[in-house]
Amino acid sequence: MSKAGGYADHAFVADLYNQFPPYRDRADIQFFVGAAKESGGPVLELGCGTGRVLIPTARAGVEVVGLDLSHHMLHVCRARLGDEPENVQSRVQIVEADMRRFELGRAFRLATTPFRPFQHLTTVEDQMSCLTCIHRHLMDDGRLILDIFDPSLEHLVADNVGQEVEAGPEFATPDGRRVVRRSRTVRRDRLNQINHVELIYTVTHPDGREERLVHAFPMRYLFPFEAEHLLARCGFEGEHLYGDFDKSPRRAEYPRELIFVARKAVLA
Q: Which helix (H) or strand (E) holds 81?
């Protein structure tokens, strides 16, 4: 993994992130806030980004530590948090750190990875390093929620490398910019289960000037049994596997999620 899959490098990604409708309206917030409340806190959120899930968690009365490697994303998160009441701000700690190796000096009842930051870890060594760090930071009764996507075999073999496709509706920013986002798979590394992806933003400014911004990053996909074995190797026992944020089971139709709820086990 190089700098959080590229999120650490691009200020424009953090600037536009919360305004992109599929992110802004993503249906996972209620799920993660509910899990945080059920745990009683404190919660460790890895890949907290701009605070999309972190801030609603704090609003719900739960103490939460948000960890991310991207200075730009955390800058937006801090600005958004600054608009919250003091009692919400007091429940949040933000840490700029690498999810593969961190030491916070405290333990948590719940660790979460909303919206797939784990898939920016492109090697088994990185994945296990991250999970081992999480395990070390959980209380004895602590749990991890691992959020990844369920790979579509049809998509993985499709002959569409290099083709740009729509990746959400056009949206407008408060300062009057109009933004269209498209995506393309630049290369498929099937041997290592990595797709090299570009998200392409076409930004039209109020004065008519047009700008093209490209966010390139690798994304590693994991199959269900592979993820289960990773969790077991790093000291976790699976409790639930959901196919969506309504806690429904996996289904045959795509798109679908892989949402693992795993309990910390005692390492031998």
A: helix 71-82
Q: What is the mean predicted confidence (pLDDT) over 176-186?
A: 97
Clarify whether residues 32 and 105 are in a common domain: yes
**HEC string for 87-127:** HHHCCEEEEECECCECCCCCCEEEEEECCCHHHHCCCHHHH
pLDDT in tens, 134-157: 999 999 999 999 999 999 999 999
Q: What is the pLDDT of residues 191-227, one digit of tens each?
A: 999 999 999 999 999 999 999 999 999 999 999 999 9
Q: What value does the mean pLDDT take over residues 97-101?
A: 98
Structural domain of residue 112, as residue ranges?
4-150+222-264
Question: What three-state secondary structure class fits 194?
Answer: strand
Joined tokens for residue 231: 């969790």
Domain match, 227 and 211 both? no
The CA angle 259-137-232, to the nearest 5 degrees, is 50
Q: Are 194 and 185 spatial neighbours (Cβ–Cβ below 8 Å)?
A: no
Is there a single domain that holds both residue 159 and residue 251? no
Report the alpha-carbon distance of residue 45 to residue 38 in Å, rounded. Answer: 15
- Structural domain tally of the chain? 2
